[in-house]
Design a protein that fits this description.
The chain is an alpha/beta fold. The protein is built from six helices and 13 strands. The strands form two sheets. Strands 1, 2, 3, 4, 5, 6, 7 and 8 form an eight-stranded antiparallel sheet that branches. The protein has a five-stranded parallel sheet with strand order 11-10-9-12-13, with helices on both faces. Helix 5 links the parallel strand 12 and strand 13. Helix 4 runs parallel beside helix 5. It is globular and about 55 Å long.
């Protein structure tokens, strides 16, 4: 069942078709369903809202039958009933030749999963770690290919693309790098919890890709020091895309604008999460 929400976005009822572990901290879940014939996106960092069931529920509780009133209806559901909502980015979209079979990939960061983890896993990490074919979810995503939830938009005159992302931004960053056309110069830094989380990326671009293992002891200072020490190719019209923890994103934006002199209008920065706050807490603040 699909219900229009606020064009160009709508709900999609999906099922898991397969899962794949990408590394100690990352898992890929592939979804499919007849609804996806109406899913369209031309963006590489397409933002999505995913609704997940609580343990013991067969499907997430989202009152999509309320149409435009779904948000208020969802908020009014009891805490142990209301579907868990989390924001993700699209990793890949695939259609067969006739468009009848559509799949999407979403990569999950498995925060707190594993016996040696110092933190407790959140509901989305727990769900992704145990996801199996047939599991049902609801997705709020785009029905129009060019929509406001796409942020990576380099100007046509861009002669250097610079990308930085932490583990939460790795899916979008990887999709961006893989999409860059031949002749594009790119310098990329991707920060992950473990060296085994690094992935092999195929791109036609002249891309230098640096996988960094997160230094939890020095925090954002090590990230800033790495970028300050980096030698970037000379460029008249660089474009910078930064995404991840909001505190680091803000510091890196100040670095590129204030220290490297990049035009602030050519810097896209997205805070996917904030240290010490859950997504529910962030939503309350917003």
């Amino acid at each position: 069942m699909t219900t229009a929400v606020a064009a160009p976005f709508r709900f999609f009822s999906l099922q898991v078709v397969r899962t794949r572990r990408l590394g100690p901290s990352l898992a890929r879940v592939t979804f499919a369903g007849p609804d996806l014939r109406g899913f369209h996106s031309d963006g590489q960092d397409q933002s999505l809202s995913l609704f997940l069931p609580h343990p013991g529920q067969e499907e997430p509780a989202v009152p999509i039958e309320l149409g435009d009133g779904w948000w208020q209806g969802w908020r009014e559901l009891p805490d142990d009933v209301r579907a868990v909502m989390r924001s993700y980015t699209l990793r890949a979209l695939r259609r067969d030749s006739d468009g009848d079979t559509v799949e999407i990939d979403i990569d999950f960061v498995l925060h707190g999963v594993g016996p040696e983890s110092p933190v407790q896993p959140g509901p989305a990490s727990r769900w992704a770690a145990d996801a199996a074919p047939g599991d049902r979810v609801v997705l709020l995503g785009p029905a129009v290919a060019d929509n406001r939830a796409i942020r990576f938009r380099p100007p046509e005159d861009t002669d250097l693309v610079v990308v930085w992302g932490d583990e939460t931004a790795v899916p979008a960053a990887c999709a961006i790098v893989e999409s860059l056309p031949a002749g594009t110069r790119a310098r990329v830094w991707l920060e992950v919890p473990h060296a085994e989380d690094a992935q092999e990326l195929r791109t036609a671009a002249d891309a230098e890709i640096n996988w960094l293992v997160k230094d939890v002891t020095s925090g954002p200072e090590s990230t800033l020091a790495t970028l300050r020490a980096a030698q970037l190719p000379s460029a008249e019209h660089p474009y910078v895309w930064i995404a991840g923890e909001s505190g680091r994103v803000k510091r890196l934006r100040r670095h590129f604008v204030g220290e490297r002199g990049v035009d602030r209008r050519r810097v896209t920065f997205v805070g996917y999460w904030r240290q010490g706050l859950t997504e529910e807490q962030l939503r309350e603040q917003g």
